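User: Hello! I'm new to structural biology and keep hearing that structure can be predicted from sequence alone. Could you demonstrate with Blue (Type1) copper domain-containing protein? Please show me the input and the output so I can see what each looks like.

Assistant: Of course. The first part below is the input, the amino acid sequence of Blue (Type1) copper domain-containing protein. The second part is the output, the predicted structure written as tokens.
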Amino acid sequence: MSHDNSQVYRTTSARTGKMMAIMLGICIVGGAIFFGMWDYWISQPAPVVAMMAGGDDHAAPATQTGKTITQDLRFIESSDFRTLAFNALPGEPDNNPTINMNVGDKVIFNVENAGKSFHSFGVTKDAEGFGGIIPGSEVALASNPLKPGEGGTSEFVAGEEGTYYYICTVPGHRDQGMVGEIIVGPAQAGSSGVAAAPTGVSHDFTLDFVESADFRTLAFNALPGEEGHNPDIRVNSGDKVTVTANNLGKSFHAFGVVSNPEDFNSIVMDSAIAAATNPLKPGEGGSVTFTAGAPGTYYYICTVPGHALQGMQGTFIVE
């Protein structure tokens, strides 16, 4: 029996070259995607790292009894990405602004990722690390961060005196500079004390926005000298309060109970109806229901800037 010992080629050198080129292309594209999202891959700490950082040691959320503060924060980065900050780089105005507030006050954070990396946000009492984030203060998470151009809103209510910190919660970013202080002082007069438990008593009030013919004098229900002008409201701490506000004027108006009538941002007890940025148009109305907070003297006002000074304010007393 004879055998054919001639060499048999399973493929050609040209086909091998094409296969190698395809494999090389796949490796290059995959590597580009992986390293292009490098900051994302490292943004989620291992479980043991999160435990060491105190990720489960949360401070308890508090109840608002004071004013409301709005703070805008933008994540920014230096051109070499070595320095990170909020709003401005170190040495520039508004770098990592310090927030001063009192026990019972609330901060509303409007957060925007103005950088080119991935970021997330939260408030902690821990002087170091990225753990201990207070529930409700988070915007995104290190495991699901804000991409460039994205943003979000969160809230923090100061429950006790001391120093808190707002940070980027992506591991390492705080150390690179993304951290600011929140200094919490004692409760202010007018918002001091502790709110009573719900009493089961309900009150309903109707307040109408009215204006003089020349628009120089503004008021609730009636103009100065007329019956029903800016009536005092008196309730007990823990009472349920419903306010209905109607815009009977020709201008734009909004409502809120505040701790300081000269500060339209000092809204307390989640008592807002509309807002200065989205007010009630002529003929529109709205209502809000809230629980009366700690005893003290507060004020109900039109929260459109300047309107309280023109007369749209009355006294809201909590006993």
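User: So the tokens describe the shape?

Assistant: Right, they're a compact way of writing down the 3D structure. Reading them back into a model, for example: The first strand starts at residue 68 and ends at 77.
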